[in-house]
Each structure stands twice: as structure tokens, then as C-alpha cells.
From TrEMBL:
This is Protein MgtC. One of its GO terms (molecular function) is methyltransferase activity. The chain crosses the membrane at residues 12-30, 42-62, 68-88. Gene3D superfamilies: 3.30.70.260. Residues 19-139 form the MgtC/SapB/SrpB/YhiD N-terminal domain. It comes from Bosea vaviloviae.
């Protein structure tokens, strides 16, 4: 068998280290995405990192650094098609950009691991997880800064995540809580987030919005047993 003739123990162990590191680091990144019920969760992120590592490691074994560089270029462009699959446009809003960026970074983690740069792969993983967690409070704080209503027209949405079986109940509760707070709903849509999560998005009719009141509405919604997560978002036309 040609396998017996070409098999080398040390290069094989090197491949084991590279793929194992890529898999573990991909799982760490994906765990945060899975916890937040994003479209690309733990399995997808881990497989992206593992696949990138496998291709780069294969090129390293066959052609050395020059071959790995060519494969990395294809990985960078190829992962763009995968990321495009999680980006969705809903009216004026675009969702999934952060998830696509996370997949892109996961491929970078895998490419580093496949190129035997495990320490660099771990460092990228730390930055990716920090970007998806530590920056979230800062983003929320910036989003809640009062807008200049005279210079920009703001659109407000309340987003609630639930399971498919509780969709009707949560949707009705969302409308009731907003109407009780004197915030009529102009439109309400639903978006699937994996097999066991659905987002209910209520768009408010253009009106003066008290952010503290919206915070209170969100807090009351999160107390409902069927609600996994609730938040509100604002965007401007300019």
C-alpha cells in the first residue's frame, strides 16, 4: 500500500495538533454564537475552522509554504460565499453581518492552526470572542444615546427570541406590552434562527420614544417563560 510507504509519524502528529487546535478554538468561538441563538452556531463555526485548517495543512504537507499561501487565498474568497448565506435583508435592515464576520474570522483561526501557527490562532480566538462579548455593552450604550430627532428620522424595533411552539403566544404578548406602553406597532415579522429559535420583530409607528420606557417593556418581556431574549434597536435613515 502507498499509505505505508508515505506515512510519516512526526508530520502526522503535527497534523493532529493543527486540526485539534482548530477544532477546539472553533468550538470556543461557536459556543458564544450558539448561546445567543445565531444562525451559524457551534457546529458551523467549528467546521469552518477545522476545514480551513485541513486545507492549509494539506497544502503545507504537499508543497510547503508557497502552496499554503495559494490555498489560504482560496479559503479567504471561498468563505465569503458561506458568509453570504447567513446575511439577510429585511426591508431597510440587514441582519447576519456579525455572524458572517465571525465565520470569516473562524476561517482565519483555522488557517493559522493549519499553518502551524497555533499561538496566533489562539490569539485571534481571544479577540473574536472579546469582540462578540465585551463590545456588546458598548454597542448597547451607543445605541441608547438620544438621537437628534430634528436631523434624523429614527426607526425603532423590539426583537424577542422564542421557540417555534411559543411563537403565537409571544407575538401576542409583545403587541400587548407595546400597546400598554402607548407604542403602537406598524408591522410585525418573524425570522427563524436555527431549528429551535424564532425572532419576533415589532416595528413601531414613528413617534416620540422614551428609551427608558422601551427598556422597561423589554425587561417585562424577558420575564415571560417562553421568551429567551428580548431587546430593542434603533436605526436612522441618514
Amino acid at each position: 500500500m502507498r499509505f505505508i510507504q508515505t506515512f510519516e509519524l512526526l508530520p502526522f502528529l503535527d497534523t493532529v495538533v493543527s486540526l485539534t487546535a482548530a477544532f477546539i478554538l472553533g468550538v470556543l468561538i461557536g459556543a458564544e454564537r450558539q448561546y445567543r441563538q445565531r444562525t451559524a452556531g457551534l457546529r458551523t463555526t467549528a467546521l469552518v475552522a477545522l476545514g480551513a485548517a485541513a486545507f492549509v495543512d494539506l497544502a503545507m504537507r504537499l508543497e510547503g509554504a508557497s502552496g499554503a499561501i495559494r490555498v489560504i487565498a482560496y479559503v479567504v474568497s471561498g468563505i465569503g460565499f458561506l458568509g453570504a448565506g447567513v446575511i439577510m435583508k429585511e426591508g431597510m435592515n440587514v441582519r447576519g453581518l456579525n455572524t458572517a464576520a465571525t465565520l470569516w474570522c473562524s476561517a482565519a483561526v483555522g488557517a493559522c492552526a493549519g499553518a502551524d501557527m497555533v499561538a496566533e490562532a489562539a490569539l485571534i480566538t481571544v479577540f473574536v470572542i472579546a469582540g462578540n462579548t465585551l463590545l456588546r455593552p458598548l454597542v448597547n450604550a451607543i445605541n441608547r444615546i438620544p438621537l437628534n430627532e430634528q436631523s434624523s428620522e429614527a426607526t425603532y424595533e423590539v426583537v424577542v427570541t422564542t421557540d417555534p411552539l411559543s411563537l403565537a403566544v409571544v407575538r401576542e404578548a409583545l403587541v400587548e406590552h407595546l400597546e400598554a406602553a402607548q407604542y403602537p406597532v406598524s408591522d410585525i415579522t418573524t425570522t427563524e434562527r436555527g431549528d429551535d429559535a424564532v425572532e419576533v420583530i415589532a416595528k413601531l409607528i414613528s413617534t416620540a420614544v422614551d428609551r427608558k420606557e422601551l427598556d422597561n417593556v423589554v425587561e417585562r418581556l424577558e420575564l415571560l417563560p417562553a421568551v429567551k431574549h428580548a431587546t430593542w434597536e434603533s436605526s436612522t435613515a441618514d
